[in-house]
């Protein structure tokens, strides 16, 4: 039996999925997703991921947040789900894929859940076991909004941990998209026309180098090993310094700037 918990204002998901520090691990979640061969093949066949990878991540993030924070999250979830039926085909090894395959769809959701835990481990206060269990129970309620089969959903957090390990052992692969995402990209295009020109020229070196670097250092060890990422002691010291800096300065960040925009909108609605 699936152990569920309410999802809404006051839930741990509302608190932690809103955390703007999670944006630092957006590319990490994307890499974990595209290590699934079906998701990788779908992106190659049906998206502009190679032409503008950042735009793809930003475009997807808003609706996913909306499933949790919109006034009618179930309606948003149905909209997200209904974008996927045409996405089907065969991967490079001839295996059939479909974006609405329950096992494939759930893996993408699992990375969003796990990312909340990773964000707090790196940049905040690590969650207790009880908090992880509650957060996971809320993630089941969240996933149910899509209206898909609940068959692949582990019943509780302990089972999820086994599922997570099994995915690395039996399903995930070092796909070409995943390998590309952990490499520095010199000619990364601007994710939106509004920031092209001088703004993007200044920001691009930090993002094109810093994003893959942070992803390499924050990926779970099995993913690092699978992708063959290089990571030196100097890299680890720099990552430790970054994490310490974020944790130390977080208390002085204005409250209104601590949440992602769609989540902040939901918070304001609740205060009216």
Features:
272 residues; mainly alpha; two-stranded antiparallel sheet; 13 helices; 2 strands
Describe this structure in words.
The structure is a single chain. The protein has 272 residues and is an all-alpha fold. The chain has a domain at 12-180. The protein has 13 helices and two strands; from the N terminus they run H-H-H-H-H-E-E-H-H-H-H-H-H-H-H. It has helices at 12-16, 26-34, 37-46, 53-69, 73-81, 102-123, 129-144, 157-170, 176-181, 198-218, 221-227, 233-249, 261-271; strands at 88-90, 96-98. It has a two-stranded antiparallel sheet with strand order 1-2. A hairpin with a 5-residue loop joins strand 1 (88-90) and strand 2 (96-98). It is globular. The mean pLDDT is 90.
For the terminal residues, how far apart are their CA atoms? 38 Å
How big is the Rg?
A: 18 Å
Largest sheet: 2 strands, antiparallel
Low-confidence stretches: none
- Tell me the strand order in the biggest sheet: 1-2
Mean pLDDT: 90
Short description:
The chain is mainly α.
Sequence-ordered SSE layout with sheet pairings:
Layout: H1 12-16, H2 26-34, H3 37-46, H4 53-69, H5 73-81, E1 88-90, E2 96-98, H6 102-123, H7 129-144, H8 157-170, H9 176-181, H10 198-218, H11 221-227, H12 233-249, H13 261-271
Antiparallel strand pairs: 1-2
Helix pairs in contact: 2-6, 4-5, 4-13, 6-7
